[in-house]
Amino acid sequence: MSALGISQVAVVMGSCTAGGAYVPAMADESIIVRQQGTIFLAGPPLVKAATGEVVSAEDLGGADLHCKTSGVTDHYATDDQHALYLARQVIGNLNHSSSNAYSDYLSLSSTISVGGGPGAAEKIPIEKPRFDAKEIYGIVGSNLTKTFDVREVIARIFDGSRFTEFKKMYGDTLVCGYARLYGNLVGVIGNNGVLFSESALKGAHFIQLCAQRRIPLIFLQNITGKLGNFASFSCLK
């Protein structure tokens, strides 16, 4: 469905068990509520029956696990209201016009296999960044061995200094998200340290989403290297 331009967004406010666990896992973007939403193929009773291990639903498939460790979910919500707010942000970054995207898809589905196109979101008024772009010189500096938070650079480039981050808690050495540049929706990818395997998976997922939605990408590259699984598990820095 996603390849046909029909986006799927999942908001996990309760338990997604067995077959239901595949819905958020296969969605384009998924949101999960802390201490409330869970995703697993088998719940705590079945785990205890099969292995004898006693585990809580939150530890087995809660928001912290899936947003920080497994990467199954993309956005971490503190409550239902926050989850719906995040869902509105996700929908706002689909790169579709609210008025004609569906009709455009119906008329062009035989020739267009990805999202965006004529139904793409309209350009909005241009805003200046809230922070002075000249401050980037002080943030980045001339010392190549000194790290900096790429989010500080992003805040000084894009419209209104607004940035909707994707998978913020997973693979945190790569920052991905949506912003506006001169009123146009863009995807942003910026290195925030050494790349790990989780960061690479996150980046690949985000690039795929932007390709399907026809959202142009802006790369802020400051690559210092990449660590493989052995180095990652050995906690090498």
From TrEMBL:
<comment type="similarity">
    <text>Belongs to the AccD/PCCB family.</text>
</comment>
<dbReference type="InterPro" id="IPR045190">
    <property type="entry name" value="MCCB/AccD1-like"/>
</dbReference>
<dbReference type="GO" id="GO:0004485">
    <property type="term" value="F:methylcrotonoyl-CoA carboxylase activity"/>
</dbReference>
<dbReference type="InterPro" id="IPR011762">
    <property type="entry name" value="COA_CT_N"/>
</dbReference>
<feature type="domain" description="CoA carboxyltransferase C-terminal">
    <location>
        <begin position="125"/>
        <end position="237"/>
    </location>
</feature>
<dbReference type="InterPro" id="IPR029045">
    <property type="entry name" value="ClpP/crotonase-like_dom_sf"/>
</dbReference>
<dbReference type="InterPro" id="IPR034733">
    <property type="entry name" value="AcCoA_carboxyl_beta"/>
</dbReference>
<comment type="pathway">
    <text>Amino-acid degradation; L-leucine degradation; (S)-3-hydroxy-3-methylglutaryl-CoA from 3-isovaleryl-CoA: step 2/3.</text>
</comment>
<feature type="domain" description="CoA carboxyltransferase N-terminal">
    <location>
        <begin position="1"/>
        <end position="106"/>
    </location>
</feature>
<dbReference type="GO" id="GO:0006552">
    <property type="term" value="P:L-leucine catabolic process"/>
</dbReference>
<dbReference type="GO" id="GO:1905202">
    <property type="term" value="C:methylcrotonoyl-CoA carboxylase complex"/>
</dbReference>
<dbReference type="InterPro" id="IPR011763">
    <property type="entry name" value="COA_CT_C"/>
</dbReference>
<dbReference type="Pfam" id="PF01039">
    <property type="entry name" value="Carboxyl_trans"/>
</dbReference>
<dbReference type="GO" id="GO:0005739">
    <property type="term" value="C:mitochondrion"/>
</dbReference>
<protein>
    <recommendedName>
        <fullName>methylcrotonoyl-CoA carboxylase</fullName>
        <ecNumber>6.4.1.4</ecNumber>
    </recommendedName>
</protein>
